[in-house]
Structures are given as structure tokens and as C-alpha cells.
Specification:
- Belongs to the PTH2 family.
- Its EC number is 3.1.1.29.
- It catalyses: an N-acyl-L-alpha-aminoacyl-tRNA + H2O = an N-acyl-L-amino acid + a tRNA + H(+).
- The chain is α+β, with helices and mostly antiparallel strands and 235 residues long.
- Helices cover 30% and strands 17% of the residues.
- The chain folds into 2 domains: 120 residues; 89 residues, Bit1, CATH 3.40.1490.
Amino acid sequence: MEFVLTLVVRVEKRARPAQTDALETAARAVLAILADERSYGDGEWADAMAAWQDNRIRKIVKRARGAEWRRAEALPGITVRGYGTGAPAPADAPVPGADDAAVAEVRVFPPTAVDAVPDDLFKLQVSGTDFEDSGELPPAEAGVPVLWLNPELEMSSGKAMAQCGHAAQLAWWGLSAEARKEWEASDFALAVRTASPEHWQQLLTTNLPVVQDAGFTEIAPGSRTVIADHPQLRR
């Protein structure tokens, strides 16, 4: 039986998140559910999480607004809010309000069988998740994990959000328990950036986790989409 992890991004009529904020928030949402105590041991989501992680870590990103979003928030899951910029916020940054138009909000739900996605999630649209950044992004902060996008691929924002979630998950799997705790303590600080062609080729020579897409949507099978560059994985 195939399982799928659903992520829902909030997209109100007059409030669309910035591209990079949406990508970073989606990746942080995946990390949040991986680290949640309900996802392992005797936790209520543990069996579903195990069944999902033992197979293809399929993810789907949908959008919601208004009443759709409120119904999604009523379902078991975790809502993660971004910081409205392309750079991670400092540890003492205030949590943005839900009415802040510049802030991404992504809710992640425990995996379900593909044919058992709750109706309130199943009915949501996949299309309409194309976002943009308003300006040039600052360099990623030193020491912060970076998810590097393949500069040669074009993906919708929803597709890229799922790929960044994959990359964050691969990085998580590669970390020690201590490194995982440190990342969680930072509120899963990370940055998403597009690599230059030269940097991408250099990254491919490392042993860093690489997302290789199955090619069911948008891009060719076997395409390498994101490389997870976590400092702890370079040691």
C-alpha cells in the first residue's frame, strides 16, 4: 500500500507567500512532523509514518484559503509559519501573525494511504501554487543548512516545495540524534537557494543527499532536483 504525506500552503486572494519563504517553510514543516513525538515510538502517527518512510516518501502540495484553510487546520497536523524573507530568522524573532500577508503558512498532515486522504484535503487544488520572490535574496547565513535547487530545472512552486521537503528529510535521516536535536532547537533553521551551474556540478561530487525525482509530474524521471547541504553532513 502506498502512502502520501500531504502539505497544504495557505494562499489567500490578496496574500500570496514569497517563493523562497514557501519553499523553506515546506521543508521545515516536513522536519517538524519527523521530529514530533507523535511520529515515532508509541505515538499516534507512528505506524503511518513508518509505513510511509519504508516506501517511496511521496509528498503532495495543495493550496487552501478561507474556509478551506480553516477546515484543513481542524484536521490533525502541524502548522509551520515562515518569516517572510529568504533568510532564516534569528532565534528570538517573534512568530508572525496569521494575517501577515508576507508570511508563508504550511500545514503538514500525517501520511495516509493514497486512496484514504481526508475529503477536506483531497478536494483541495494542486494548481495555483506559483509564487515569486520580490527581490534578490541575501546570501545564506553562514553555518545554516542550505537546500540547493538545480539551476537547470523549471518547477512549479508546489513541485519545488515537495522537492525541498524530500531534501530536508534526506538530511534528517543522515544526521545523528544529537545533530537532530540541535537542528530542532534552532526551529529547523535552513535556507533554500538556487545553485549556480558551477556550484551545482561541484555539489554533485560530494556525498551530500541528492533528491532524484521519480518523474511522475513536470520533470523527467531521474532528474536531480535538490541537494541538502547540512554542515553536519560534511564532517
